[in-house]
Design a protein that fits this description.
This protein has 87 residues and is mostly beta strands. Helix content is 0%, strand content 48%. The strands form 3 sheets. The chain has a 3-stranded antiparallel sheet, with no helix packed on it. The relative contact order is 0.24.
Length: 87
């Protein structure tokens, strides 16, 4: 069974800082894998230069405000490409 291919754009990810926070600024593309599938969770992990976990965040269908709904296209066709820049 093939696994979908996900690309992070741009590489490296842009960091934006303000007085209190650091924000990650990036997009991603998801390429189909020969079968239809649905995106149900997106998890991001950020590590420091020594590979220590700094933060882990997830978008999913838990809770009142469903974070996964920020991704307008969650159904991926067998040979489809999801590019949030184009959504």
């Amino acid at each position: 069974m093939q696994t979908p291919i996900m690309k992070i754009i741009p590489m490296p990810v842009y960091l934006q800082k303000n007085e209190h926070n650091v924000f990650l600024n990036f997009d991603f593309q998801i390429h189909g894998c020969g079968r239809e599938f649905s995106i149900t969770t997106i998890t991001l992990s950020a590590f420091d230069k020594k590979s220590n976990l700094i933060v882990r965040k997830s978008l999913n269908s838990n809770g009142v405000a469903l974070g996964i709904l920020t991704l307008p296209q969650r159904e991926i066709l067998p040979e489809g490409v999801v590019d949030p820049v184009d959504c």
